[in-house]
């Protein structure tokens, strides 16, 4: 039979687990960025921010975003013509390809409220959307676009 854990102890255990698994919960401003061959995380509050490599061995990472509630980092890789994903807790396994068959995926943005993934493709002149797992892919805009490269969302306002 399992041990009985009171709700206060469970909450404390969950916070300790999050603090050890996910550096984004520690209360310091962190900056996650793509550095072409890797993804890095740096403490933005320190004047000499030493970056920690979160994902290495990438081909040509162009854009990066994350979904805190799911503990996932997403990035676009122009050379691999794909959008990939990895858990913040890398013990969950290697990166997975979420969307493939893209021509030049430059921009990327995660809607953490609607659980959607948006991206730009500067070669096909499209802005597309899919579920966070890459399913239900749909082209949103394709007319009157000239090499869209960046995208930003305001999920709170829809």
Automatic annotation (TrEMBL):
Q: Tell me which domain of life the UniProt entry assigns to the organism this sequence originates from.
A: Eukaryota
Lipoprotein as a keyword of this entry, yes or no, is yes
Q: Name a Pfam family for this protein.
A: Ldl_recept_b
Q: Which residues cross the membrane?
A: none
Q: Which residues form the signal peptide?
A: 1-27
Which InterPro entries does the record associate with it? 6-blade_b-propeller_TolB-like, Cueball_EGF_LRP_Nidogen, LDLR_classB_rpt
Task: Give start and end residues of every LDL-receptor class B repeat.
Answer: 71-114, 115-157
Q: Which keywords appear in this protein's UniProt record, sorted alphabetically?
A: Disulfide bond, EGF-like domain, Glycoprotein, Lipoprotein, Receptor, Repeat, Signal
Protein name from the UniProt record: Low-density lipoprotein receptor-related protein 6-like
Which organism does this sequence originate in? Scleropages formosus
């Amino acid at each position: 039979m399992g041990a009985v854990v009171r709700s206060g102890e469970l909450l404390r255990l969950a916070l300790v687990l999050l603090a050890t698994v996910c550096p984004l919960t520690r209360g310091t401003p962190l900056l996650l960025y793509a550095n072409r061959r890797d993804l890095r995380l740096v403490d933005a509050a320190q004047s000499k921010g030493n970056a920690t490599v979160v994902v290495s061995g990438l081909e040509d990472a162009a854009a990066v975003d994350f979904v805190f509630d799911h503990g996932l980092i997403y990035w676009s890789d122009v050379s691999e013509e794909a959008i990939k994903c990895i858990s913040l807790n890398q013990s969950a396994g290697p990166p997975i390809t979420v969307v493939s068959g893209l021509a030049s995926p430059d921009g990327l943005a995660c809607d953490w409220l609607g659980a959607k993934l948006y991206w730009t493709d500067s070669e096909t002149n499209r802005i597309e959307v899919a579920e966070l797992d890459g399913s239900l892919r749909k082209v949103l805009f394709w007319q009157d676009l000239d090499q869209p490269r960046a995208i930003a969302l305001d999920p709170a306002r829809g």
